[in-house]
Amino acid sequence: MRGNGLLGRAVLVLIVAVAVRWVEARPRPSTLGGQTRPNVVLVTCDSMDGRLTFYPHNQTVDLPFINFMKRFGTVFLNAYTNSPICCPSRAAMWSGLFTHLTESWNNFKGLDPDYVTWMDLMGKHGYRTQKYGKLDYTSGHHSVSNRVEAWTRDVDFLLRQEGRPMVKLTGDRKHVRVMKADWKNTDKAVNWIKEEAINFTQPFVLYLGLNLPHPYPSPYAGENFGASTFLTSPYWLEKVTYEAIQIPKWSSLSEMHPVDYYSSYTKNCTGDFTQQEVRNIRAFYYAMCAETDAMLGEIISALRGAGLLKKTIVIFTADHGELAMEHRQFYKMSMYEGSSHVPLLVMGPGIEEQQQIQNVVSLVDVYPTMLDIARIPVPQNLSGYSLMPLLRGKAESEVPPRPSWVLSEFHGCNVNSSTYMLRTGKWKYITYSDGHSVLPQLFDLSDDPDELTNVAVKFPVIVHSLDQILRSIVNYPKVSSTVQEYNKRQFVSWRESLGQNYSNVIANLRWHQDWLKEPKKYENAIDKWL
Questions:
Q1: Is this structure's pTM higher than 0.90?
Q2: Marked catalytic residue, from 45, 86, 289, 413
Q3: Which of 164, 220, 394, 453 has its CA 20 to 30 A from that of 207?
Q4: What is the CATH classification number for the domain harbouring 106?
Q5: Residue 84 sits in which domain range?
């Protein structure tokens, strides 16, 4: 259903114009070695599956500006979040540290407000700095439901915490600006480039945070509604090729990994879904990705119009992915590819063109990369490594040593166990809690890219080897225990702050539809847990 209307042709003309100007004015890679430091623009969206930026998943939807960045820059084929949920992931990106070091255990707990980020350091070293849109890397945000669900994940009950995922079409074929808040922030960033950045005599770093393609709130689910609505307009839906949409294979409920079952149940996904429902959810999600791509395009076009594109390194990424009904789930909070694999594209002076990088990388690499671009000494205590040697297209022998693995971990809501993922080579190893009480998972991504067959029992030597590597990075049983203790302390403090209102408040969180059927049962389960 790809559209070929007037607006579509206008986008094509704009891309061609940007491409021509880029080729004509493109500086040689040696520019980075000179005296002029480049500007930097980082566009970070929310919930984009990184696999959409390359074949074959990119066949489902038109993403012209992501494709533009691939044409004139570099795409990472194996980029991962360090924690597949908003605040902990962003805390890792802004600090350069793994989640167990930031102790950003859930969406309520992130960095301290005065934490020194890479942008702070760039500002101290002569960069003009500006931020617009979603940041979400400090503590104290998100709903009460979100934090209480995370704190009580070890309680012996099972409650639906989300509305059933659904789609909603709005407007007509001329309705372009669906996510108004994101477009407003994009406009602010564009105006800043055109009116302020264009006049700077020193380099600048600009950050734009987008909410899309995160699903929208679902008011029908009640007062403390979650966000289970995939919303778009016919204009964006026409960018999607329905015939290319894959319907994911599901295990039966009885065959699911126990943590997956908990996640699927709390996300309200254990009911019956028709193939058309699943296809529509995925189509609407892809359409939301297309709208996100258009906002990226506005930034690129503004830089070109201001004569700044040839002086600016542009980076596009996301905090995590979106399962879009893979493994019988939507949202993130999972180590499966749809949730943990993020887009990462970079273009600009000194960046190799049309380069696809296979190395595994993650969001903690953003911090040292930013400092490297700005020629600021990189602290030795960071979890990440600069991506610049890879981005410059250097031979492997010339690239400084970097780990052959990436780490991701999760300690928040909708999952009833701390989860750890080690990705290296063709293997993805996922382990839980103390490493013994929950069965681990091992996937051969070269043979099983959809992660349908857990081969942990088949390859015990590989499991042992990967577990040893993981333990050399993080003492994960100890971290899991720390999180459990933190959850209890936080919950007790919160309950005491409510006094006599406790029973009423806890009953009316996002799980209210289930809780109110047997409130005493669930309160007793919490008392037993404590």
A1: yes
A2: 86
A3: 394
A4: 3.40.720.10
A5: 42-404
